[in-house]
Structure formats: structure tokens, C-alpha cells
Write a structure and sequence with these properties.
thiosulfate dehydrogenase (quinone) activity; Thiosulfate dehydrogenase [quinone] large subunit; DoxX; 2 strands; 9 helices; transmembrane helix
Length: 201
């Protein structure tokens, strides 16, 4: 008799019912739709304003002018006993971002536009919300508060609820193609002969 090698089954963590209801229940899709559209509209309008700016200070001949002003303002907030901008982020601004202000200008403008478009359409909602939160975090690290704390919190919620946040959106049709949506479990073959009540040999 040949004994097959024992293969341990990896442990899985059970998802609490409240977590599943909030972040994976399609019945709450209308709530997530409102949240997603609000955050998406904020990013879409911000990005569209930068891309279509008539002065071209974000995208165009003068690309980098607006970002340079923003970054220099961040550097001015690094002094004092309680600086608004951390020293390590100031180093990043001075040595990485400012020398490449034009490139960062394009990335910010089109990044906001792409994040907003994806959220409004409900396409790869979790990924779009993650990058939106990443933008918010960078603005906050640069000492700019404005609506960034609220949008960062909402983006975090959208990341947590990615399975249902795009249910009323393109994710409902796109995500199953990547195998990330639940499908009804297939029952294993029944090893019992139902007519005789004996194991199949």
C-alpha cells in the first residue's frame, strides 16, 4: 500500500460577519457608489483643472512652475520647533522632486485625472483609491491640509471595500475576468455510491 506524503493545509482566517457585511455585501453597493462618486469627482475635477489650465503651468510649456511653487512652499515649512514638513520628506522634495518638477507636474495632473476617472467609472476601484490615498498622503506630508485628510480617510475605506465599491460600476464585469470575485463553490465528487450506500471502489 502506497502512502501519499502529507501536505498540510494552510491556515485561513475567518472573516467576521460585520466586516463581510460592510466590505463585501452587494446590498451596500448604493452606499459605496455614493462614496466612490464623491471621491472620484473630487479627483476628476482637480485633475481636469490642471490638465486644461490655460497658463500651462501643470501640463504644457511652463510645466513644473506650479509644482515648484508648491514644493518651495513645503520647504519653507520645515523650520521651527514643530515643523509642518518632516526632515526626510524635505530631503526628498529638495533632492528628488524639485530637480524633476516638470515630470512631477505631469504625474500629479494626469494621476489625479486617472484616479478620478477610474473611481467614477468603478474600474479597478481598490487600485485607484490606493493611488488617490497616496497622492493625499504626499500632499499632507508637504504640509497641505485642505480636503486631504477627508479624502485620505475615504480612499482608505474604498480600498477596504474594493470588492463591493465597484459593484455598481465596471468592476462588476471586469474583476471576474481576473478571478477575484467569488463564484459558487463546486461540491466535490461524492465518494459514496448513493444506490448501494457503499464507498466507490
Amino acid at each position: 500500500m502506497t502512502t501519499l506524503p502529507y501536505t498540510p493545509t494552510p491556515a485561513t482566517l475567518k472573516e467576521p460577519a460585520i466586516s463581510r457585511m460592510l466590505f463585501a455585501d452587494p446590498r451596500l453597493a448604493p452606499l459605496w457608489l455614493l462614496l466612490r462618486l464623491y471621491v472620484g469627482y473630487e479627483w476628476l475635477s482637480a485633475g481636469w483643472g490642471k490638465v486644461t489650465n490655460p497658463a500651462g503651468v501643470w501640463v504644457g510649456e511652463k510645466a513644473g512652475v506650479a509644482v515648484s511653487g508648491f514644493l518651495n512652499g513645503a520647504l519653507a515649512k520645515t523650520g521651527g520647533d514643530h515643523p509642518d514638513v518632516a526632515g526626510w520628506y524635505a530631503w526628498f522634495v529638495q533632492h528628488v522632486a524639485l530637480p524633476n518638477a516638470a515630470a512631477f507636474s505631469y504625474m500629479v495632473a494626469y494621476g489625479e485625472l486617472l484616479v478620478g476617472t477610474a473611481l467614477v467609472l468603478g474600474l479597478f476601484t481598490g487600485i485607484a483609491a490606493f493611488f488617490g490615498g497616496f497622492l493625499n498622503a504626499n500632499f499632507l506630508l508637504a504640509g497641505t491640509v485642505s480636503s486631504n485628510p477627508l479624502l485620505f480617510i475615504l480612499a482608505t475605506w474604498l480600498v477596504l471595500g474594493w470588492r463591493v465599491a465597484g459593484w455598481w460600476g465596471l468592476d462588476r464585469w471586469v474583476l471576474p475576468r481576473f478571478g477575484v470575485m467569488e463564484q459558487p463553490a463546486l461540491l466535490p465528487a461524492d465518494p459514496v455510491n448513493r444506490r448501494q450506500g457503499q464507498p466507490v471502489r
